[in-house]
Structures are given as C-alpha cells and as structure tokens.
Write a structure and sequence with these properties.
With about 525 residues, this protein is of the alpha/beta class. About 35% of the residues lie in helices and about 10% in strands. The chain has a single domain, classed as TIM Barrel (Alpha-Beta Barrel), CATH 3.20.20.300. It is built from 19 helices and 14 strands. The longest helix has 17 residues.
Length: about 525
Amino acid sequence: MKFGKETGSWSRAKVLAVVCLPVVAIGLSGCAQEAQQPELAARSKPILERDGHQFRDLDGDGALTPYEDWRLSPEERTADLLERMSVEEKVGTLMHSTLPGRDGEMGVAQVYDLDALGELVKGKHVTSFITRLSLEPIVLAEQNNAVQELAEASRLGIPITISTDPRNHFQYVLGASSSALGNTQWPELLGFAALRDPDRVRHFARIGRREYRAVGIHMALSPQLDLATEPRWARMSGTFGSNPQLTSDLGAAYVEGFQGGANGLAPDGVMTVVKHWVGYGAQPEGFDGHNYYGRFAMPGDSLNLHVDAFRGALNAQAAGVMPAYPIPVGASYDGEPIEEVSPGYSKQLLEGLLRGELGFGGIVLSDWAITRDCNDRCRNPTDDAPQRPQDISTAWGVEDLTVQERYVKGLEAGLDQFGGTDDVAPLLAALKAGEIAQERLDLSVARVLLPKFVMGLFENPYVDPRAAVAATGNGDDFALAAQTQREAHVLLRNESAACPSHMAVKVWLFGVSADAAREAGLEVV
C-alpha cells in the first residue's frame, strides 16, 4: 500500500484486496459464510424481507444493499459500505471518543448525555466510544442500548463499537480502569502472573467476554503487556511482570479467552487491544508517560525483550494494538536509531516492526491525548495550578507540530484511530489540503468497520438487560474469582514462622468486617 498524497477512488476489487488483510487479525477463513438467518433487532429502521430471509434496512432506502446483506462476507460488506460513506463519515470513523455522561466529567456519570452524544454520532459521525459508566448490569445494558438506538437512526445506521478499560479487578483508577460493579473480581494481572497458569487466565477472560457482551461492550482496551522493568513504576500491578516469555504466554491466553478462540475474533467475542507498544514499562525512576517529566522511556538495547512480550498475543491474532506514550530513548530498529517521538508517531515501530515484520493486520488505536497541546499546567504544574485531566497531553516529540500536522504524521506512521478525541476538523482540513491520500483514509476506515460486521453488530447491536443480570451474576464464577484471588497471594517474607497461623494466635484485622471474619472461621473478640 502506497502512502502518498495521491488521490483517487477505489475499485471494489481493490477495497476487497485491502480489507482482507485484517482477516488474519480477526480469524476469518475465506470471504464467505453460510446463509443462516441471524436474530435481528431494530428500533427505528425497517426490516426487509427477501428470498425468505429478513434484513435490516439500515440506509432506509427500501432496497437490500450489499452491506445490509448478512449472507455476504464481512469483507464484501465492508467494501460496499466504504463506497457509500461520505468523507465526513469516514473521518468520524477514525475517532475513538468518550461516551459523554450527564452531570459528570470524562464520561463518569450515572447516565449518558444522549443529547451530547447525538451531536457526536450524527454531527461528527463518530462510531467508536469508550464507556466510563460503572453501573449495575441491567442499567448499563439499557444505557448502551440507548447509544445503539441513536446510531441506528443515523444515515447509514452504522453501529457503535463500545470499549472499556479493565473492569474485572479491585483497583479503580480513572483513565486506566473501571469499577467492577456487577462483574466478577479477579486479581490484577500481576496476580495472575504469580500463578503462572495460562488456563486460569483464559478461563477468566472467557467469563469477562460473556460479561462484557451481555451489557453491550465490544472492545477491551487490554491486556497491558508492558514489561515492568522499573519496580517504582505505578502501573506495574496492571502488567504480567518483567518476564517476556511469561507475559507472552499469559497475553496469548487473555486474547484467546476474550476474543473467543486462538484464531482471532469470533462472532461472540470481544476485541482485545494489546498495549502499550512498545517499551512503556522501562520508565526511569518510575515516572509515567502521562506526564511531561515522564515523556521518556529507556528500553535501550533491550527493546527486543519488550517486543517479545507481545508475540503471544499477536500470534493469537489480537484485534487491536495501542501504542505507548513515552519516547523510546536509545532504541534502534533495522540498524537505524528510532525517531525520538511517541510510538504513536513512529513509522518504524508501527509500519516497520509491527505491521511489516510481525504481520499485524488489525486496528492500531492511539492512546488518549496524543494530539493535544501541552500547556503550562502540563509542562510545569504547581500547587496553585496543578495539572487537570483536560491539561494532559502526550504529544511527546511532536510538540512543535500543529494539531493538524500531528494527525497527518500519526496516519503516516500507521495509526488507524485517534483515542480520546472527536475533533474531526484537523483531519478534514488535511484531506482538503491533499496532505492525506483518500486511499490511506479508506484503509483505516475499512480496518475499523470490519470487526463490527464480524461481531454481528449490523444485525443486532442491542442486548437483553434482563439476560445481562444472569450473565454477570453466576455464583460459580464469583467463587472461582475469589479462589483465584486467594491463590495469587505471595508470601514475601515469613519472619518468626508467623505463617501458617494457628487458631490460638490473636490477629488484628484492618478494613475487614466482623461478619467477614466470622465467615473465615475467626472468633471475633
């Protein structure tokens, strides 16, 4: 694929040839599927009947267009839809925004702000969003159905891909994880690493897949496969540790469990976005790449070890990859020093190493805030003027570029979607100025659309809120999660043979209720 400034339309054959590239990443065999009537659901668009089958009339024209025909392959349907989309709709597809919450910040609320969302879906044509709602499953399912209803009413009825940060653990950090309300709670990934059991990770991920899909979530912004080589780094607990082979093995199991198998994304699967490519865990002094003072990582000549940690997940055909924030200092690729920019802007790391050498064909989704300017609060936060969420920028190495130039450089490097933004204006301006080829735009749009067809969202993006309660409330699943949490505890030091404890020993409990202590067999005094 040529990445130039040439413009021109695509032939249908050419679109099919390109869109079949990500097939490896989502595990389809060939470009055909058996004609078996799927379950359809519609809120505003008609249902068509043709040849004894039913189809959703998503464009509302009364005719069965190819992208509405589930008898065709996902690749054929993607190619047809791509030809029907306007430039504005294509640009909106390259945004991965946040579902706005009513009376909340950064999407954290009790309900979505559907009026604000309507502007993003119908005005800016965004079709991918992260959810930051943490609600009981029945309520979250209802809220996500409302999102899909807005999307169905749009011109082409393109369903929304809803993503989430991890929401099956105990730690909650805004911007990195979500509350596990209603879901099973498992150890952080570092706890799974202590068990060294890929089967347990795979089993957990299968349960997580069922819980996510039951409430209308389609993409997991996980697992975090960074090698935690700096013990002072605050995100260490979200990784599988510092062993490349163990991280590779457990990462593969995670992807297989969430996506529905070892051969890529299954129709009932959840897309995984493995992160952060690559070298994020080598943070000097434990600084973090979200901050100006943490904008450098130091993988040096050990970059290959950080790459090795991703191999298992990539071999399991993870649907997406998220580049890291910090600039990898002292690293080289193919005998050349790597440009000192954030990996989301590195053509060497994305087009060269990830796609070219390792053969990745799925979505490359940038992490959040990589196109935003770094203001004074970002560069020099003080007690009087601390850095706020809206001040966070991670445009490391490209601070001197304009926002429009950052979009162009990101696409040239190999990005398909820009995370955390719905600012379509710079990309539209770049296209108008001839700085981005239509061909390059279409390639990324096709990569984003294809999994929506694979997961059946064009047939039925809705979920049954009552069924969500049953899918997320399985007692055996909760018991296994609790057992896994117990098994993941690691005794670091056993002074004076304090463990195992004896019944005659008095123990002090902090943050544990009396009822919980009694249930554990302790006598409360």
